[in-house]
Write the C-alpha cells for this entry.
Amino acid sequence: GEEVAQTPKHLVRGEGQKAKLYCAPIKGHSYVFWYQQVLKNEFKFLISFQNENVFDETGMPKERFSAKCLPNSPCSLEIQATKLEDSAVYFCASSQSTAGGYNQPQHFGDGTRLSIL
Amino acid sequence: DAKTTQPTSMDCAEGRAANLPCNHSTISGNEYVYWYRQIHSQGPQYIIHGLKNNETNEMASLIITEDRKSSTLILPHATLRDTAVYYCIVSLGVDDKIIFGKGTRLHILP
C-alpha cells in the first residue's frame, strides 16, 4: 500500500497479559522501524529491520519485548507480561532503500495506542 | 540524546511565514537535516530534508547555514492546520534510526 498501516488503533490489556501490535510497511520499502511515545513529546527508538533481518535493536528492552518481520506478513511487536509502564503509543515507520537514495525519509503510521490497566 | 536544540514553543499569526530555528552544532559531514511534524496524536509527518543546499518543496523551505550548524524551517503562509509539534533531526539517512528531541510546539493564531 501507499501508507504504513498499523493495527489495531487501540489495544487494552490487563497488567501481565500479552500485547501484539502489527505494522504493514509501504510496499517496496526495505526498512521498518518501531518507536515508542510515552509522553506527548518523548519518542524512544526500539528496533529496526532490513527486510526480515534485525538491523538495529539497541533500543529494545532486553526482557518481554520481541519483534519480527517475516516475508509476506505484517511486521509485529509483541510484549509479554505487560506492565503499567508499557502504556504508550507505538509507531511504526518504513523507508525505501534505493540505489543512491541513501537519504530517503521515514514514513510513519498513525500508531497503536496501548493501554495497560 | 538528540543532536538538535529547538525552542520549546512558538506562535505565528495565520497567513504569515513561520520560521522555526534549529541548532545542530555537532552535525557530521554525512548527516542530513530532516524536519518532521506531529499533528495532535497522529504519526510524525515528513516535511523536508537537506544536506548542504537550501531546499524547497510544496510544504516548506529549508535554509541551512553554510557551516551547517543550524537551520531554519520556513512555512511560507501558515494556516491553522499547521499547528503541530515540529521536530528537527539529524540523521545518516534511510537505515538510520531517528533520535527525536522535544521539538517546537507551533501555535498558529487566527
